[in-house]
Amino acid sequence: MSRPLVITDCDEVLLHMVAPFRDWLAETQGIDFHWVGNDFSKALRYCDSGELVEAKEIWRLLNLFFDAEMHRQGPISGAVHAINTLAERADVVVLTNLMDHRQEARAQQLADHGIHARVYTNQGPKGPALKAILDEYQPSRAVFIDDIAQHHGSAAEVAPELIRLHLCGEPLLAPHITCAHQAGHAHARIDTWEHALPWLLEQLHGDQA
């Protein structure tokens, strides 16, 4: 009999990303990161001029960060315990939107923090990748955890059988991002692992899903 399956994002779900990225920008790049609404493209400004950092340069900086600064990322509160608790009763995999050549670095990064899980990389909407993972594992039940509403919308369209939890564990972002639950694309929105874990266990193993 197949096991339940947990498919989880990494950045802002398992590990902090924006906060260490902000600190690195201030310390080394002379850039101030201040979140405005839910538009990441307007969050970065040069400290000396106040001018916005162009989108092309933001992508260059993100690539620099993921190439050399991933060691700055620490776990979201409760994430390691929750994922390891789930792994006792379900298969757990990570689906992260990084370029494929960073797959091994991401897996090692998570292992260094005590999360030992298979890592899948993806670019763009996650629905097709989620469908491929479901086809591979054929789980009895499956949940998908992500902090970005767009990915829940893609999941709902391509793999509607997934139980979808919108979780953003980064307080800098959580109040500002679009809520997938309010949009009707996620079954729940829970931003702390303390409260998410019992909900997830119930979805995976309870009589109702």
Enumerate the spans where pLDDT stays under 50 for 5 or more consecutive residues: none
* CATH architecture classification of the largest domain: 3-Layer(aba) Sandwich
Question: What is the CATH third-level topology name of the largest domain?
Answer: Rossmann fold
- Given helix and strand content, the structural type is alpha/beta
Tell me the total number of β-strands: 8
The whole-number mean of residue pLDDT values reads 95
Rg calculated over all Cα atoms: 17 Å
- Beta-strand content: 5-15%
Per DSSP, the total helix count is: 7
Strand order of the largest sheet: 5-4-1-6-7-8
Q: Summarize the main sheet.
A: 6 strands, parallel
Q: What distance lies between the first and last C-alpha atoms, to the nearest angstrom? A: 18 Å
Describe the structure.
This protein is of the alpha/beta class. The chain has 2 domains: 5-16 and 74-205, 3-Layer(aba) Sandwich (Rossmann fold); 18-72, no CATH class. The protein has 7 helices and 8 strands. It has helices at residues 18-29, 55-68, 79-87, 103-112, 127-137, 149-158, 193-205, and strands at 5-8, 31-33, 44-46, 91-96, 118-121, 142-146, 163-166, 188-189. The strands form 2 sheets. Strands 5-4-1-6-7-8 form a 6-stranded parallel β-sheet, with helices on both faces. The protein has a two-stranded antiparallel sheet with strand order 2-3. The mean pLDDT is 95.
